[in-house]
Write the structure tokens for this entry.
Amino acid sequence: MNSFRFKGLLAGFVLACAFGQGASAAEISGVKLDDSVKVGGKELKLNGFGMRQKFVAKVYVTSLYLPEKSTSLPDIMKMDGPRRVALVLMRDLTSDDFGDAFMNGLNKNLDNKEKARIVTQISKFGEMFALLQVLKKGDVLHLDWIPGVGTQCEFNGKKIGEVVPDIEFYNAILRIWMGEHPVDTHLKTALLSGK
């Protein structure tokens, strides 16, 4: 086989891998992200992704999937259709650490009146974190909004905890990463990049 033909075949193989079914749209720190996922029977597009870092330590990779791309959190919160926030752990965490970080994110982005309206849902989510006990590097958590169902969580592909029916609760979760006081401003920019 001559060199020119081999290079042509190799280029074709690379393109087939890049654009074939199940191809990853992006990769960050070895975590491959799909360019689309199905949630609630609908296809969602990768809106943005980034790394949550605390000082120099990598904590998790976060990605946001939406029915259509957007760079505006208010627009995202009004969207019809399902949505997904996916987290891939980059280090081991206890459920207490993860739960505390979740609560801190809510507290920074919600006023007392907003928290009072979803206090029952927050409590249910706290019970879910207690079920996890330890989160290991490589574990995957999906936080999905499914219209007509509610906020549903999956941990390594298995549904966990109770479904929370209120859209206000899911939008409060989004504000942890994309609200006025996000856990990481660089991560907020990455998730809302719409690229």
Notes: The chain has a mean pLDDT of 87. The chain has one domain: 23-191. Residues 152 and 163 are 5 Å apart (CA to CA). Residues 23-191 form a domain with the Chalcone isomerase fold (CATH 3.50.70.10).
